[in-house]
Amino acid sequence: MAAGLLLLAIPAALASYAGHWTLVPGESGDVKSAVEAAVSKMSFLIRPIARSRLEKTQIAFPAIDIEYSETEFVIRHKGGTAVPHRGVDETVNAVAPDGAKIRVGLIAGPPLREIYTSSEGSRTNTYTLSSDGRKLTLSVDITSPRLPVPVRYNLVYGRDR
Fold it and tell me: Where are the domains positioned within the chain?
């Protein structure tokens, strides 16, 4: 390896996540209820503002496309972000759909984790495959110094063949 050249690679184990995934609403948690559970512990003056901001950014994505190659791994949330990772344990600068500047990290696991960090707080997406590889559970954990408790919910996706 030449001096100053860092070779990044995507682990082959991540190939099992690749594909088109569609939300299974009947098996997924209720995002609005998760937001409400967090904001219910806030002052009645701040609660509507916090609720509005969280509801704009916490979306039950209707579909997720995951792309794998030896040199790049991308998780595309329909209506959300799509950050290309060229290596695990690296952090990438990106822009969220609402225009906020974010940093996104990828941890190969298992389980697979994508961690979004902004000046407001952080979101950890944990992706877990079913034993037969036909379902993907996305566990979301939102934390912020402004939230009295984290926002947590699960979304279940079926693999399209």
Answer: 12-160
Q: Does residue 105 contact residue 87 with C-beta atoms inside 8 Å?
A: no
CA 114/CA 138 separation, integer angstroms: 10
Average pLDDT over the chain reads: 91
32 half-sphere exposure, CB direction, 13 A CA radius: 0
Contact predicate 65/21, CB 8 Å? yes
Of 125, 115, 21, whose CA–CA distance to 67 is shortest? Answer: 21
Pairing type for strands 82-85 and 63-68 reads unpaired
Q: Rounded to an integer, what distance in angstroms lies between the CA atom of residue 149 and that of residue 152?
A: 9
Report the pLDDT averaged over residues 53-72: 92
Averaged pLDDT for residues 44-70: 92
Q: Return the number of other C-beta atoms located less than 10 Å from residue 44's C-beta.
A: 6
Q: What is the pLDDT of residues 68-82, one digit of tens each?
A: 998 899 999 998 889
Give the model confidence (pLDDT) of 115-146 as tens digits.
Answer: 999 999 999 999 999 999 999 999 999 999 99
CATH topology of domain 12-160: Lipocalin (2.40.128)
